[in-house]
Amino acid sequence: MSREHEQAEEERDQAVRDLVALDEQVRAGEIPPGPAQLLRSEYERAAIDAMARLDELRERSPNSGGGSRGTRTRALAYLGTMLLAAVAALIVLPDSVQQRPQNGFVTGNEVMQTTSAMPMPMPAATPSLPADADAAATALWIQANVELFQRNDPEAALRTLDQLRQRPGLSASAQQDVAALADTARRELGKAGR
C-alpha cells in the first residue's frame, strides 16, 4: 500500500472520527446547532474527498479490478455504515455508561477526584456567532468559549478572541458578542490575580 493511499485512509478515518465527536459535542450542548452544521459540512466534505482519492488510487493501481461506480458505492456504503454506527453509539451508550462525577473518574465502583481546579460552568445560553460568520470565525468563537469555560484559561481565550476580532467582515452583532466574552475573560483573569 502506498504512502498516498495510507494518507487518504487516515484522512477519511479522521473525518469520520470528527463527525462522531461533533455529534457528541452537539448532544452535550458544547457546540450550538448553527456552527455544528457548518463543521458537519466540512467534515463530510473531507470524508468524501478522501474516499474519492482512495477510489482514484485504486483505479490507477495495476491490479485494480473494479470500476469507479462500484468503488464509489462501496465508499458511500462505508461512510453510511460509519455514520450509522456513530449515531447508534450516541443513542445506546449514554444509558449504558455510569455517570461520571464532575471533574472525577469512574473506575469500577470508586470515584477518584482530580486535584486540578474545577472549570467555570459553561453559561446556559452561550451566544453563538451570527449565521453569516464564516467557518474559521465560528471555530475561533468555539475555541475561545472552550478555553474560558472548560479549560479555565482566560489568557488563552483573550488571545483567541483577539484573532477573531481581527477577522475581516465580522458583523456588528458578532463584534458585540466577542467584546462581551472578552470582558468576561478579563473579569476571570482579575479574579485569578493574573
Describe the protein.
The chain starts with a helix and ends with a helix. It has a two-stranded antiparallel ribbon with strand order 1-2. It contains 6 helices and 2 strands. By secondary structure, the chain is mainly α.
Can you give me a brief rundown of this structure?
The protein is mainly alpha-helical. Helices cover 68% and strands 4% of the residues.
Strand fraction: under 5%
Count all strands and give the number: 2
Q: Structural class per helix/strand content?
A: mainly alpha
Global outline:
elongated
Global mean pLDDT:
75
Record the strand order, biggest sheet. 1-2
The number of helical elements comes to 6
Number of structural domains = 2
- What gap, in angstroms, lies between the N and C termini? 52 Å
Helix content: 55-70%
What can be said about the biggest beta sheet? 2 strands, antiparallel
Tell me the Rg in angstroms. 21 Å
Unreliable stretches: 109-118
The ordered H/E elements are HHHEEHHH
